[in-house]
């Protein structure tokens, strides 16, 4: 469901982004309407609309007048790149700072990550 730690419209936008990345919504495929999302998630239609609007503003969704919202061409690749950049800033940079303080080299850190991944 939606992440309670974020505003509903942001959590909704992220949920749709997740669906685009996992293939639930392919490029040029329709996404649920504002009213469908509001009914399914039991939220205000204005909140659902605001979440969809974020994705339109970001170029992830495109509006087709009278038809609905569709995944924009290239949206999965653009989302993946944006999230990779955010991942680096949110997780990798702090990890490297902490590793440096502990005297862990990048090579040692890579080995630790590989070891954990093999578990």
Automatic annotation (TrEMBL):
Instruction: Provide this UniProt record's keywords sorted from A to Z.
Output: DNA-binding, Transcription, Transcription regulation
Keyword set includes DNA-binding: yes
The keyword Acetylation belongs to this UniProt entry's keyword annotation: no
Source domain of life is Bacteria
Q: Which residues form a coiled coil?
A: none
Query: Which InterPro entries does the record match to this protein?
Result: Tscrpt_reg_HTH_GntR, WH-like_DNA-bd_sf, WH_DNA-bd_sf
The segment(s) forming the HTH gntR-type domain are: 6-74
Q: What Pfam families does UniProt report for this protein, alphabetically?
A: GntR (PF00392)
User: What is this protein's record name?
Assistant: GntR family transcriptional regulator
């Amino acid at each position: 469901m939606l992440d309670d730690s974020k505003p509903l419209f942001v959590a909704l936008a992220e949920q749709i982004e997740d669906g685009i990345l996992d293939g639930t919504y392919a490029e040029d495929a329709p996404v649920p309407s504002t009213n469908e999302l509001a009914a399914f998630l039991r939220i205000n239609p204005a909140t659902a609309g605001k979440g969809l609007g974020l994705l339109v503003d970001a170029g992830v969704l495109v509006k087709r007048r009278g038809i609905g919202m569709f995944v924009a061409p290239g949206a999965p690749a653009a989302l993946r790149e944006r999230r990779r950049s955010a991942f680096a800033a949110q997780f990798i940079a702090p990890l490297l700072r902490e590793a440096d303080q502990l005297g862990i080299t990048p090579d040692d850190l890579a080995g630790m990550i590989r070891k954990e991944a093999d578990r």
